[in-house]
Amino acid sequence: MKKMSILVLISLSLFGCGEYSPSKHDVVNTLGTIKNLDLLEKFTEDVSNNKDSEVRVVNYTDEGDPVIHDLKYSDEKLSSKIDTRFDEFGDHGVIEDTCKSIEIIEKSDQTIYQLSGCEVYKEGLPITIIPSD
Question: Which InterPro entries does this UniProt record tie to the protein (predicted)?
């Protein structure tokens, strides 16, 4: 019984009772309102310059749930890890992928930051989408 109590406490502390609080170093997209976009732009530049770098992007769903996307570029390898465990309507898992590049796609109504050349998401993997003003 004591072991079960400890496991429950650890689980609650890890998942914060379903809450996630982004750090001041995260790129946060709350339904088109972006904080710290400069960190994603720097990451994109670092990848272009073959410089090791990492960034966390937190995209909030329409329902207000965070989807956490960790990006890391190291030793010429671009890694992606998407955590949907806080998304009530998501698949509640972690998906990892390796991609070849990051693109910025400018459209009339939005800007899309997207990974391309991915092993799992062959069609491309959006990092975040920013609506135009």
Answer: DUF4362
Tell me the Ramachandran region of residue 120: left when phi exceeds 0, alpha when psi lies from -120 to 50, beta otherwise: alpha
| CA–CA dist 69, 59 (Å, integer) | 8
pLDDT digits (tens, 9 = 90+) for 81-107: 999 999 999 899 999 999 999 999 999
Three-state secondary structure call for residue 19: coil
* CA-based nearest residue to 77, from 24, 112, 115: 115
DSSP string, 61-117: -TTS-EEEEEEEEETTEEEEEEE-TT-TTS--SEEEEEESEEEEEE-SSEEEEEEES
Instruction: Indicate the SS3 state at residue 128.
Output: strand
pTM: 0.84
**Residue 50 and residue 80 in contact, taking contact as beta carbons nearer than 8 Å:** no
- Asked if 19 and 13 count as a contact pair (C-beta separation under 8 A), the reply is no
> Quick one: pLDDT at residue 52?
98
Q: How far apart are CA 124 and CA 132, in angstroms?
A: 21
Q: For residue 102, what are the contacts with CB-CB under 8 A and spacing of at least 6?
A: 43, 44, 47, 71, 78, 113, 114, 115, 116, 127
